[in-house]
Amino acid sequence: METLIFIISLIAAFIFSLGGVGAAIILIPILVSLGIPVNMAKPVGLFYNTVSLTGASINNIKNKRLDFKVGIPIIIFSFLFAIVGAYISKYIPNQIILFLFIGFLLFSGFMFLFHKKKTKDSYREDIPVLKLSLIGAFAGLLSGMLGIGGGGIISPLMLMIGFNPKKITAITAFVVPFSSFSGFLTYWAMGNIDWKITLIASAGGIIGATLGTIFMQKKLNPQTVKKILAVILLIMAIKLIFNII
Questions:
Q1: What is the pLDDT of residues 42-60, one digit of tens each?
Q2: What burial class does residue 161 get, using C-beta atoms within 10 Å of its C-beta: 0-12 exposed, 13-18 middle, 19+ buried?
Q3: H or E stretch covering 41
Q4: Residue 116 reports pLDDT greater than 70
């Protein structure tokens, strides 16, 4: 099973790094389907997001693709609220968390699929601190509760308020490791870590995300990336719905 987890982690990280989104959103339900309890799978997903997207962010920083000023408010609030989300998750039944997960997948998938493309000159270049802080807080809360990193909620919300998809990709890849790591530390403090699975998944994540970031910047149109991510998210939502039924 360890080899299977490594391969799945690598492929998932490659695909999701194309849009700067942590692949824990797809890795966690896969781990659960392999028999790993959801409370053990969530910290695996958070640590996996941390290390895989840290590599992607280093690549973005080296190539000067990252707008730090836009990312800072999201980082601060997502980091703080991920701790809150991870802590309160132990008081929420797994069934409710699954429903939240499905809603999150559907929202993100439809946003990526149907959000209208703007012209290059119409993307905003200002820094709406309050809106970015609220996005960070909401993403961090979901990150901690669901073990997903929050990138899939940051990206569509930033699209809604008018940012360039390429800028969003770099920012989410930079923000997600912070919110993911704070959530992971909270789960670690509560004693829910399987280090063997965590390290195997993370090794695949580092390789996959690094390759995916390089491939996206050189080969793919951002609109194509959005459609790929949308299809994956919606497929996972449908799968989870059938699992509940």
A1: 889 889 888 888 877 887 7
A2: exposed
A3: helix 38-62
A4: no
**Count of domains forming the chain:** 1
Residue 196, judged by CB atoms within 10 A of its CB (0-12, 13-18, 19+), counts as exposed
CA dihedral 122, 127, 132, 136 (to 10 degrees): 120
Domain holding 55, by residue range, is: 2-244
Structure tokens at 203: 């090794």
- Token digits of residue 207: 């390789």
Global confidence as pTM: 0.72
Query: Which is nearest to 13 in space by CA: 195, 159, 149?
Result: 149
Instruction: Give the model's pLDDT for residue 66.
Output: 82
Q: Taking a C-beta distance cutoff of 8 angstroms, is the pair 17, 23 a contact?
A: yes
Token pair of 233 as six digits:
């998210």
The single-letter code of the amino acid at 202 is S
Residue 67 and residue 219 in contact, taking contact as beta carbons nearer than 8 Å: no
Q: How far apart are CA 182 and CA 38, in angstroms?
A: 18
Mean pLDDT over residues 93-102, rounded?
A: 77
Which residue type is seen at 176? V
**Contact, 33 vs 236, CB < 8 A?**
no
Distance in angstroms (rounded) separating the CA atoms of residues 93 and 113: 31
Residue 116, number of CB atoms within 10 A of its CB: 5
CB-count exposure of residue 68 (10 Å: 0-12, 13-18, 19+) = exposed
What's the residue count for the chain? 245
Amino acid at position 131, single letter: K
